Amino acid sequence: SSPSSYPSSRLNNRATDDRIASVFDVVNDRKLPPEIRGQRNNVRSETDIVNVVERRVYRAMEEGQFENLAGKGKPLDLTSNPHADPAEDTLYRILNKNGCAPRCVELNKEIRNGISQWRQSLRKAFLHKHGGHDRSKWLNSSEKLQHQLRDLNRKILDYNLIVPFGRQMCGLKWEKEVNLVSEE
């Protein structure tokens, strides 16, 4: 392309980007409650949307729309997960009745217990370092602890690969953990 065609291609790209952005705005606007549609610039946060929903619920309560609901006064059935696939829900129920948990739950417990024990070991080793004891003992302990930390971080990575986004854990860093112990 010649240098003179660059400005016009930028204008075309900008126009296309503006059209795409306006489509996204329209789509996102349709997700808003009708009371605040068309006011995207006035919606400051999710709280504004929550307030609209709460007003609707209170209005419905005042009008008595919740008085004749099926199952009123009866306990909720919390044995099944309405958001889970029925086959998975059945599987989890069978596992639960037999004292088993999904792999991610067991791995979570294992990681949390491992982290707790590892931190206790780090504190003990750190006391040896600063308690006037043999410095070689700290070096041996720190080497073992770093190896254990790598194993814990590997388990955390495995856990993060099987759990839904948002339930993932952060790995541990040696320097940060040692600094936390030294501040205690």
From TrEMBL:
Transmembrane segments: none annotated. It comes from the Eukaryota. Residues 52-117 form the DnaJ homologue subfamily C member 28 conserved domain. InterPro entries: DnaJ_C_subfamily_28 (IPR052573), DnaJ_homolog_subfam-C_membr-28 (IPR018961). This is DnaJ homologue subfamily C member 28 conserved domain-containing protein.
